Amino acid sequence: MKMGIKKYRSMIKNDTREFFNVSPIKWKAVDPTESGTKKTLYGICRGCMQGDCATLVHLEDGIVVKVEGNPGAPPNYGSLCPRGNAAVMNIYNPYRVKSPLKRTNPKKGLDVDPGWVEITWEEALETTARKMKEAREIDPRSLVICEGWGQRDTALRTPFIKAFGSPNEVGSHGGACTVHYATGLVQHSFPVSTVDLEYCNYHITLGRSLGPNFATTGGSRKFSKAIDRGMKLVVVDPRCSYEASKGEWVPIRPTTDLAFLLGMAHVMMHELKTYDQFFMKYRTNAPYLIEPGGDYMRDAAGNKPMIWDPVDQKAKPFDSDFKDIALEGAFQVDGIDCKTGFTLIREEFSNYTPEWAEQITDIPAARTRKIAKEFVAEARIGSTIEIDGFTFPYRPVSLNTERNVTNHRGGTYADLTGKLINMMVGSIEVPGGCLSCGYRGPVLSPTADGTSTPGYEAVAKKWAFPPNNIMLNEFYPHIHHSSLQAARSILDPEKYHFDYEVKVWLAVGGNPVRMGADPKLFEEAFNKIPFVASIAYHMDESAYMSDIILPEHSFLERKRVAAFWPQHQSLSDEVNGLQMIQLRQPVPTLFNTRHVDDIFLELADRIGMLEGEGGLNDVINESEDWIIRDDGLNMKEPHKLDLDKRYSMDEIFDRQVQSWKYNDGTMNLEKLEEEGALAHWNPRYTFYNYYWVPGDQTRHEFYFINLKRTADGLRANLKKHNVHFPGVSDDEYVFCQYDPVPHWVESSELSTPEEFDMWAINWKTPYVSSEVGNPVGNPWLAEIYSQDPWENILINSETARKKGLKDGDWIVVESRHGKTEGYMKSSELIHPETVGFPGSYGTGSRHSNPLYRQGPHYNVLLPMDDESIDGVSAGQEVAASVKIYRKEA
Fewer CB near the last or first residue (10 Å), C or N of the chain? Predict the structure, then answer.
């Protein structure tokens, strides 16, 4: 059954061209010097969020005729998915923005004609720079840069906003993907933890893909190899994904993953009672004594946390010599009753039997027990493995969660409970186990309390009142990103306690209209902001509501030097230990567009913030790669920029290459141009962070004391300023998610009127893993997804029968917050209470590619009030309670 493109098209009432007050498309003529030539360029694919597949771009007569994987080059080793192959249509896209545009109609809306007129680059840059400079002189915080997956090829976006002086770099994608806190807390890493497919034998995955829905080359290959060698995969998910078809599918009711994880942990703690004793006693803070107020019980000097020695029958500072360590128990120290952190968690988890979880999750209690028993047995507690001469603990099991688990109220607890399950068998940062995918090195170095130092988003952002950050970082100090919160703050600054207003919004690959929820909210926000500009590749919703559009190159036209970032979805020895810088050689440009970083350089120069101390050059010199730190392209002496000189991007790239940590003295941009990539392989054993801080030299947080510390600081600051969490009826509704002991927290959508008897969920697909490269608008990809029957709204076959629905029916899916509609397909591969939405379709504007406007738009179903978010990460709810019905003709 086809998706029904023709029917979708019939719903589009206006032809796009009718509204453009611009010249017809003028394709650039072939350069006469290119006639009769054939050429191959090095490339880096930008077809997904990972965006690092090595490619070869073939040109004939100056025209791109083919994009393929670069044979033998990591990380894809010659393979390339259809998104990468379809990059040809990314450059030859007639719906690109081809020259600078200016709005003449002051009213903004997705159905309002902007009255575009073409302008020169001089006018576009001068207008934008003048507006930004005026805003900076009033208050640097009045600039918001909205970034997103639509633009990952910029080296200067973050340095630009830092030099400007604004804290407001807002991610349009981040509110629906808050997956970072727990890994930052337990493993001091970013962005996530994932599975070691090289050695894992039993993997449980919840709410995530191991590759097929993401980077369908390296990720899929690593996954296939693991399955072929016998790894068992358990997929806990409302739908049977590609991965689940290769393992055991465990259907679960949406938003209830926390209950399943609590039930599994209960079995491990109260029924199996089998732990990695050394790991729990010497590699976690589980045995630390906790006083009645929830803090560590400290020694007489008040400095060091205490642990009970059951042989000597007394409490000792954690770094003492112990004859043994009590993991469990209640003790009296200096007249104060204490319990170990493990005991407090175990007592709480006594409530969460598999039978209790079954009522919430719809997973039979016997199945939860079976999975827990298999997980513990397969952990091989006590075993070791030698890698290149270094002996590691060997724990070939891993449990990992991601956005469809974490993006609910209580989602942070779900992620943290998953960490507890891994820690009980010792499968953290060791071969076969749960590995962080970020920086490798001594990141697990202990604090003064002996526990691994929190990193990244687990480090609470500083309090300020009135708040500085438009996303309300001060009230949610572990927030990832929230464009929804930014829009709410812009529309009602008094409610959210702001003492300044946003004057300029600059979109750089960020499109909150499509990636968030409630387009009307952003229409109102954009109408309130005095000046909106977009560095845009195509006429997406943010560009459509801009005052000035600064057109950028397609990614094939953009020269790029990039460091190799960690693999997000799975790890194996294909890339373990790899440090690399890659080059994309640009193809000839087609239209009157510019490289995004050249735009930033020009704006910085015109604003007067390029040179001098604190200027853009200075910030570039002092910046460090946020994810891979010293392994990234960071400026070092003697290659740092002169503060009083303007550089080209080639000059900046050259200095970055020469500054690279692994440069042997011969590497520069010229050599990179010759080779396409420069690689360095560290020994395999250095990839496991246990290697850097082995034995009993550090402890992971098992009792999550840092949640309590954040809450204590927040309570004090709220009381000091006599304020409350904005938009929340009771502060405890948020604070209950900061207890150091995880517990059941109900999603905001779990208790709804009976008429909303179904759940709507969404997932990435091989066609639309994210908005990188405009996949929905790519006609080559559309040829595939428009005929894929699984790209319709999916409903369980028996549920469809009971509701009198059949394949091909046009149905309406309605939540308390919005509704959408589309074609239905029935399937046994989805939970009976679930309505499934693959990919990301719908919305668009009157001027966007018609493909961009076809299909149901999932996000309009989602809640977006302050009480629906996770209290720790401020993550947006990504599932909705809905009802469904056939739309009558």
Answer: C
Neighbouring C-beta atoms of residue 34, cutoff 10 Å: 15
Is 137:509 a contact under the CB 8 Å cutoff? no
Query: Which phi and psi angles does 782 have, rounded to 5°?
Result: -65, -35
Complete domains list, the chain, with CATH: 5-91 (2.20.25.90), 181-272+358-446 (3.40.228.10), 758-886 (2.40.40.20)
By DSSP bridging, strand 314-317 and strand 143-147 are unpaired
> Considering Cα of 253, then 259, then 265, then 268, what sign does the dihedral take?
negative
**Exposure class string for 144-169: b at 16+ Cβ within 10 A, else e:** bbbbbbbbbbbbbbbbbbbbbebbbb
CB count within 10 Å of CB 799 equals 19
Asked if 267 and 350 count as a contact pair (C-beta separation under 8 A), the reply is no
What is the C-alpha to C-alpha distance for residues 236 and 239, in angstroms, rounded to an integer?
9
| Residue 481, φ and ψ in degrees, nearest 5 | -150, 155
d(CA 8, CA 849) in angstroms, rounded, equals 13
Pairwise CA distance, residues 451 & 285, whole Å: 7
Count of CB atoms situated within 10 Å of the CB of 455: 21
pLDDT at 18: 35
What are the pLDDT digits (tens) for 333-376? 999 999 999 999 999 999 999 999 999 999 999 999 999 999 99
Is 859 exposed, middle or buried, given 0-12, 13-18 or 19+ CB atoms closer than 10 A?
buried
Write the DSSP string, 660-705: -TT--S---HHHHHHHSEEEEE--GGGGSGGGTS-TTS-BB-SS-H
Residue 468 banded pLDDT, cuts 50, 70, 90: very high
Instruction: Tell me the pLDDT tens digit for each residue of 376-403.
Output: 999 999 999 999 999 999 999 999 999 8
Strand partners, 96: 538
Q: What is the pTM of this model?
A: 0.95
Rounded to 5°, the CA angle 785-788-794 comes to 110
Identify the CA nearest to 649 among candidates 156, 113, 117: 156
Structure tokens at 117: 């007129």
The number of angstroms, rounded, from the C-alpha of 482 to the middle of its chain's C-alpha atoms is 12
Short-list 471, 525, 478, CA closest to 498: 471
C-alpha triplet 420, 421, 425: angle, nearest 5°: 105
Structure tokens at 393: 């603990």
Identity of residue 15: D
Alpha-carbon torsion, ordered 798, 803, 805, 806, to 10 deg: 20
From the CB of residue 608, how many other CB atoms can be counted at a distance below 10 Å? 12
